[in-house]
Write a structure and sequence with these properties.
- By secondary structure, this protein is α+β, with helices and mostly antiparallel strands.
- It is built from 19 helices and 22 strands.
- The chain is 37% helix and 20% strand.
- The strands form five sheets. It has a nine-stranded mixed sheet with strand order 1-6-5-4-7-3-2-8-9, covered by helices on one side. A five-stranded mixed sheet has the order 10-11-14-12-13, sandwiched between helices. A three-stranded parallel sheet has the order 18-17-19.
- The longest helix is centred in the middle third of the chain and has 24 residues.
- The protein is elongated and about 115 Å long.
- Bound molecules: adenosine-5'-diphosphate (ADP) and magnesium ion.
- Magnesium ion binds next to helix 2.
């Protein structure tokens, strides 16, 4: 029996550990199970290099809760420790045995998968326990050791008679931590942190149905037998090579990761790199809604199959945090702040690698089966557009697979689009104008008018499209995007041969004030325009610039300050009805015509509501009766 004092600089380190080491007390279990896992990895390694003789079997870990005695046991069948090792590794705080192990076996230990580098991992036990015991039997032929410590720097270390190789950690749970004596709580923690750890972890038992005998009756109940309840999947999909996985394997792993998620992922990207950093993982593209906010915290970060966090900010580029999946990398420093993380060179490389893999995958999907890619476009476009906006490298690559759909269901790449509309949609100054709509229902009449001219109308409806358009206009030469309801189509793409106005200058000068007296000036600016006689008499438009700025502001960024709801009221001087307005003698009748034409214009913009709508209907009935 030995009594000793743990050699720490601070007189009583334990309260400090309790307070500062980890804000989350629950991680004690992760740390202890990680140590148990390391112990098994070490055993396997020593066995593979011949330092441990004989069969080692398939070592396991067991977690037991003894609520009555207020104890939690974590038992492993790993290397164990001699009492010298307990002295060295446990008593010398901050002395990481794993680190020494790594140094000793540096080159061939890589694939042994050592988790421990959290430094004070073992001592996190004192966050929840008032007393901790270690009963451990080394693989070496020496007596087992029993270490006890009640949270003060004093400990006892004595011989004991444990026969089987391995270590048992006993936590005497403190009064303020009794929540961890609840089986359900431990089950929850195991499922959160240890679901994909590499060695079987037993927690209690469960009943399993035995197969029914062949001659069993229809309604026969199968017999059950009690089996160990293993809580983890020891070989999760991301640890395998892509060649060994079928599509179904990826899907079923997705279900393991997100049991509450009923929708299948669209496709996945298997990450696998070992130089200049180590990283494996699988990223899934779920269907992305047009709402950007609700979809983060879905990617899980692991280190050697131990769950660390689902906040991957700084590690995964922002636009990819909308994806799901797992990333497993021992090379991500975790005990540092997020801002440090973002500046870290290795993490930068990891982030770039992930971006590149995603871009490559999208590019290959596009090349391999364009039709299927087009079908998925609606569900993935937000990620791609967001990526183009925020990552220059991604922007360059995405130019080849970013799609521009039309309102009639065609899909163009940028290059194809340019070729398709160049002849018809270049204006008199040589600027190529891409027309687009954001809503085929609401902008229906504008789309039709543009189509009548033989123009192609794109359908661009993501919440961030205004930002992307802005960027494209800045990057590409001499092009512009114009929403179909931004102006009369004749003005959106100005051609040499302007439409001639049927009204003379004097007639126009008489007409304008007539209309302005009826139309509320704080909302509408009246503008006379010679358009096709087949176009509507009055057309409401909202200038592209104003509208775009407003949209950009709504989705973040852009200018500050509220934009007023302002429209231009285009009056088609070539329309019969407008001529009629001009020549109507009675003021009352003229007013009614103007009002009616204005309401029709508002109606086609979906702006006629409430009282105005009721008045319009009443007036219309009067007109036809
Ligand atoms: P780390 O895991 O970072 O090395 P810990 O404080 O978690 O730090 O553990 C300290 C050391 O104690 C380990 O490196 C290991 O040598 C030893 N150890 C802890 N738990 C076990 C165990 N279950 N079996 C064998 N050795 C263990
Ligand atoms: Mg550890």
């Amino acid at each position: 029996m030995a009594n000793g004092k743990i050699n720490v600089a601070v007189e009583n380190i334990f309260p400090l550990i309790k307070k500062f080491l980890y804000s989350d007390h629950e991680i004690f279990l992760r740390e202890l199970i990680s140590n148990a896992t390391d112990a098994i990895s070490k055993l396997k390694h020593l066995s593979s290099v011949g330092e441990v003789k004989g069969e080692i079997g398939s070592p396991r870990i067991e977690v037991k809760v003894d609520k009555d005695k207020k104890k939690i046991h974590i038992i492993d069948e790993g290397v164990g420790m001699t009492s010298e090792e307990v002295n060295k590794y446990i008593n010398e705080v901050a002395f990481s045995g794993a680190e020494e192990f790594l140094e000793k076996y540096e080159d061939n230990v890589k694939d042994a998968g050592i988790i421990g580098h959290f430094g004070l991992g073992f001592y996190s036990a004192f966050m929840v326990a008032e007393k901790v015991e270690i009963i451990t039997k080394s693989h070496q032929d020496v007596p087992a050791a029993h270490w006890t410590c009640d949270g003060s720097p004093e400990y006892t270390l004595e011989e004991t008679d444990k026969k089987e190789r391995g270590t048992e950690i006993i936590l005497h749970i403190a009064e303020d931590s009794t929540e961890f004596l609840e089986e359900a709580r431990i089950r929850e923690l195991l499922s959160k942190y240890n679901k994909f750890m590499p060695y079987p972890i037993k927690f209690g038992t469960k009943e399993e149905n035995l197969p029914l005998p062949e001659d069993a009756a229809e309604d026969a109940k199968p017999e059950t037998k009690t089996v160990d309840n293993i809580i983890n999947i020891t070989d999760p999909a991301w640890t395998k090579t892509p060649a060994d996985l079928k599509d179904e394997d990826y899907k079923s792993f997705y279900r393991e990761l997100y049991p509450m998620q009923f929708e299948e992922p669209l496709f996945n990207i298997h990450l696998n790199v070992d130089y200049p950093f180590n990283l494996t993982g699988i990223m899934y593209f779920p269907k992305i809604q047009n709402d950007l906010n609700l979809q983060k915290d879905r990617i899980q970060l692991y280190q050697n199959q131990v769950f660390v966090t689902d906040n991957v900010e700084g590690i995964v580029p922002e636009f990819l945090t909308m994806l799901r999946g797992v990333i497993d990398s021992p090379d991500i420093p975790l005990n540092v702040s997020r801002s440090y993380l973002q500046a870290d060179g290795a993490v930068k490389k990891i982030s770039n690698y992930i971006t590149r893999k995603v871009a490559d995958k999208l590019s290959s999907l596009f090349k391999k089966d364009r039709k299927a890619f087009e079908e998925k476009w609606n569900d993935i476009k937000v990620v791609i557009e967001y990526g183009m906006l925020t990552e220059d490298k991604f922007y360059e690559k995405a130019d080849k697979f970013m799609l521009y759909p039309t309102t009639t269901g065609e899909y163009f790449t940028y290059e194809e689009l340019e070729a398709a509309v160049k002849d018809n949609q270049t204006d008199k100054d040589g600027k190529l104008v891409f027309l687009y709509a954001s809503n085929t229902e609401e902008q229906h009449s504008y789309i039709e008018t543009a189509k009548d001219k033989g123009y192609k109308v794109l359908l661009l409806d993501s919440p961030i499209i205004a930002h992307l358009i802005q960027k494209l206009e800045g990057d590409k030469e001499n092009i512009a995007f114009a929403r179909v309801d931004g102006d009369a189509v004749e003005n959106l793409i100005k051609k040499e041969e302007a439409t001639v106005s049927k009204l003379s200058e004097e007639e126009k000068e008489t007409l304008k004030p007539l209309i302005e007296t009826v139309v509320p000036g704080e909302k509408y600016t009246v503008q006379l325009e010679a358009m096709d006689s087949s176009s509507l008499p009055f057309v409401l438009t909202q200038p592209e610039f104003m509208r775009r700025m407003k949209e950009m502001q709504q989705s973040g960024g852009g200018m500050m300050g509220a934009f007023p709801e302002m429209y231009t009221l285009l009056v088609n001087t070539n329309h019969e009805l407008v001529g009629q307005i001009l020549h109507t003698k009675t003021a009352k009748k003229r007013e009614r015509l103007i009002q009616q034409a204005l309401d029709l214009a508002r109606l086609s913009q979906n702006l006629l509501k409430g009282e105005a709508l009721t008045a319009f209907i009443k007036r219309s009935v009067d007109l036809i009766k």
